[in-house]
Amino acid sequence: MGTVVMGKIESGSTREGESLLVMPNKALVKVLAIFCDEDKVKRAGPGENVRIRLSGIEEEDILSGFVLSSVARPISAVTEFVAQLQILELLENAIFTAGYKAVLHIHSVVEECEIVELLQQIDPKTKKPMKKKLLFVKNGAVVVCRVQVSNLICIEKFTDFPQLGRFTLRTEGKTVAVGKVTDLSSSSS
């Protein structure tokens, strides 16, 4: 029978019989069938919403946010990354500093995260890094920081692949910041 997964093809294409990796758990799978809407197709490409029947993995081994990836060039899976954030509106009495916790929303991943280090603030007028030592930032600030999650997530640098490199940070149901991944940590696989 196989396990059926749903998603959108962001890049490349897939075809029946192809071997792929499910990331971040690195499970090798084979594509048994592809469905676009209700139609069975032999191949699907970028932008298409698909259901794909796979062999080699069980349903309980796949979570929302997992990515089907090429065996030759698998997507990065990290627990820490560097990002540029635009602080929109913090909750009242909240201070955006190292230790700030929020919920990260990136493609279909929803994961708790923590800001582990503020690296630099960007001057909104010149778009250049400011020299001052950074302890915290306020609403409207643009900041480069290191973000950490507890589980491996599949992401890409925004410059390499915008669809998998932009995200929001939310707290108590409110979007407090939008960001883009600028660098993947060395702990990536």
TrEMBL record:
Keywords: Cytoplasm, Elongation factor, GTP-binding, Methylation, Nucleotide-binding, Protein biosynthesis
SUPFAM superfamilies, per the entry: EF-Tu/eEF-1alpha/eIF2-gamma C-terminal domain, Translation proteins
Keyword GTP-binding assigned: yes
Listed Pfam families: GTP-eEF1A_C, GTP_EFTU_D2
Domain GTP-eEF1A C-terminal: 80-182
GO molecular function, one term: GTP binding
CDD domains for the chain: eRF3_C_III, eRF3_II
Record has Nucleotide-binding as a keyword: yes
PANTHER family the record matches: TRANSLATION FACTOR
Name this protein carries in UniProt: Translation elongation factor
Species of provenance: Trema orientale (Charcoal tree)
